[in-house]
Design goal:
12 strands, 23 helices, 4-stranded antiparallel beta sheet, elongated, binds adenosine-5'-triphosphate, 3 domains, alpha/beta, 6-stranded mixed beta sheet, 608 residues, Rossmann fold, ABC transporter transmembrane region fold
Length: 608
């Protein structure tokens, strides 16, 4: 989105932002219609409000010598005391009705604002979850959080407290200006002379208000990024004594945000005061010219009074317009940040004709794959290999050779730029993402536990699982015994703030999770890294049970694990340079064999 240049532009931008949210707005059609009825009645009642005063002055106090055509003439036959009583009563009735309409209007506006923004937040959350890893690799989580929580809140608050009331006061303005023209067109025209001056001042200040508001929002996003990174790495920061470095960068963002905030407020205050003065100028002109007309007998004094009341009230929306301009500019900047995210399309998504995948047998084929995370830096140029169903294959090689990326491509976390990945001879892009990923179990280096008991943690992501199946999976994962020894067994609450498990225990929970899914494809990315000998043995036992009967890809640096695989693929710079069974690779006496002997300390067989 380009940069808006004026407050008008801000409103235009705000409307554009709102257009993005029209599906959510449409769901509130009935409430919007109800609030419009309340708003219109409030406007009509506001227009009626000054009339009892005129009636009292004209008919009870005889300030004027009303013309015979005056419709107020019909009240002249009433007793003054009756007339006073009636006008007092009518004033109370008008104000009470107006207050009731205002009450319903306020409630309706608040409901619309809150419901719509809550739905948009939900949509944004789902959208962020759906965006591909290539987006999340570059995005900064602190900024995303500010957009999802702070920007949405700002938009909601401004929509409820400024934009919708402004819509109401604009209708009041239209109504009152129309009545002013009916009362006396010359005076009405005179009072409108200041309107162009008002626009000129908004054009001048509006641009600066919007750019300051936009910068402030960006600073707040940057501040959140610094804060979230510092909180996430507090251990490292304290250990390396980096507190003052992070404090400095946070403080500088904080100060810059403050100065932009003050600037926005100062500019908005200047605009407000300018409109105050312009309103006073209009009022002075009307009083002066109105008095001249009244002296000449061409205007009743009470009409002048009525006119002045309308002018004061009618111009309030223009003052509000100035008052809210800073907040609306800020909300527009926030809205643009939300729309920017919503306009991001996932790189990886279901093809239009994607189908549910059938149950896989487990044959894998990577065919002429070309892929790179960054343009010009390919991880694979032309990678091809096939794995038969049910095979246990170890992917080994130097760090950065492209082992883990193979798993990401199979999961379609990224799509290759060229070539195809086939499962059971079918391109994986034929299937929906959920039906593909639903048939792949993954055990990574680290396992995240979620708030919930052991049952829930194991059943995560799997549907219709019984407790018996969960226990069976835990047994297979070699986790049943330690789970039973937890304070409440399978009902022990795990998660960040609850019982913490050791790394090895977490890994066995992850294996149980994978077992419960009962998927035909199993991906293991260094699942035993960082474990001591005993834990590693237990995890390995669980993994062996899990892999039985499934096509398994194991990424590992530990060649003792590779040694038990059916087949080993040795990768170097994105190419398979050696492949075959462990024994055949040892016999080849190539790179794999060298690495294996240097890791295990076994002696190389000597050539006779
Ligand atoms: P390791 O054994 O260290 O885990 P690996 O063999 O699994 O390494 P990959 O993680 O597949 O290697 O990475 C292959 C190449 O892609 C590396 O050069 C790496 O720097 C790069 N890479 C990996 N992930 C990303 C990413 N998200 N964005 C950009 N480049 C990446």
């Amino acid at each position: 989105m380009g940069r808006p240049k004026t407050v008008n532009d801000s409103f235009f931008r705000f409307r554009q932002v709102m257009r993005h949210f029209s599906p959510e707005l449409r769901k509130e059609k009935a409430l919007i219609a109800g609030s419009m009825v309340a708003l219109l009645s409030s406007v009509v009642l506001r227009i009626l409000e000054p009339w009892p005063l005129k009636l009292v002055l004209d008919q009870a106090l005889h300030w004027n010598n009303p013309k015979k055509t005056d419709f107020l003439e019909r009240f002249s036959s009433l007793e003054p005391s009756t007339l006073l009583g009636l006008t007092a009563l009518s004033l109370v009735v008008i104000v009470a009705l107006r207050a009731t309409s205002d009450y319903y209007k306020t409630i309706a506006f608040a409901l619309i604002g809150n419901r719509v923004m809550t739905r948009i937040r939900g949509r944004l959350y789902r959208h962020l979850q759906a965006l591909s890893l290539s987006f999340h690799d570059k995005a900064r989580s602190g900024d995303l959080l500010v957009r999802m929580i702070g920007d949405i809140k700002l938009m909601r608050d401004v929509a409820v407290s400024a934009l919708l009331p402004l819509l109401g006061s604009t209708l009041v303005l239209v109504g009152m200006v129309s009545v002013m023209f009916l009362l006396n067109w010359q005076l009405a025209l005179l009072s409108m002379l200041v309107v162009p001056l008002f626009w000129l001042s908004t054009i001048k200040l509006g641009r600066r208000i919007h750019s300051a508001a936009r910068k402030q929002r960006q600073r707040e996003g940057a501040m959140a990024v610094t804060a979230s990174e510092a909180i996430a790495s507090v251990k490292v920061i304290q250990a390396l004594s980096l507190e003052s470095h992070f404090d400095k960068s946070f403080s500088s963002e904080n100060k810059r945000s403050l100065s932009e905030g003050v600037k926005t407020r100062r500019l908005a205050a200047r605009l407000e005061r300018t409109t105050d003065i312009l309103t006073a100028v209009a009022m002075a002109g009307v009083l002066w010219y109105g008095a001249v007309l009244a002296i000449k007998g061409e205007l009743e004094a009470t009409s002048l009074l009525l006119f002045a009341t309308y002018l004061k009230r009618g111009f309030r929306p223009i003052q509000n317009f100035a008052k809210y301009s800073g907040r609306i500019a800020k909300a527009t900047a926030a809205g643009e940040r939300i729309v920017e995210l919503l306009e991001e399309t996932p790189d990886v998504q279901d093809a239009p004709d994607a189908q549910e995948a059938p149950t896989f047998q487990g044959k894998l084929q990577f065919s002429e794959i070309r892929f790179g995370y960054e343009p010009g830096r390919p991880v694979y140029e032309n990678l091809s290999f096939t794995i038969e169903p049910g095979r246990f294959v170890a992917l080994v090689g130097d760090s950065g050779a492209g082992k883990s990326t193979l798993l990401s491509l199979l999961l379609r976390l990224y799509d290759s730029q060229q070539g195809t990945i086939l499962v059971d001879d079918q391109d994986i892009r034929r299937w929906t993402l959920s039906s593909l990923r639903g048939q792949i179990s993954v055990v990574l280096q680290d396992t995240i536990l979620f708030a919930g008991d052991v049952y829930e943690n194991i059943a995560l992501g799997a549907t219709d699982v019984t407790q018996a199946q969960i226990i069976e999976a835990a047994k297979l994962a070699n986790a049943h015994h330690f789970i039973e020894s937890l304070p409440q067994g399978y009902q022990t609450i795990l998660g960040e703030r609850a019982v913490n498990l050791s790394h090895g225990q977490r890994q066995r929970i992850a294996i149980a999770r994978a077992a419960v899914r009962n998927a035909p494809l199993l991906l293991l990315d260094e699942p035993t890294v960082g474990l001591d000998e005993k834990n590693e043995r237990e995890v390995r036992l669980g993994l062996r049970n899990l892999a039985a009967g499934r096509t398994t890809l194991l990424v590992t640096h530990d060649l003792r694990q590779a040694a038990v695989a059916d087949e080993v693929l040795y990768l170097e710079n994105g190419r398979i340079c050696e492949s075959g069974s462990h024994q055949s690779l040892i016999d080849q006496a190539g790179r794999y064999a060298d690495l294996y002997f240097s890791q295990t300390g076994e002696r190389k067989p000597t050539l006779r």
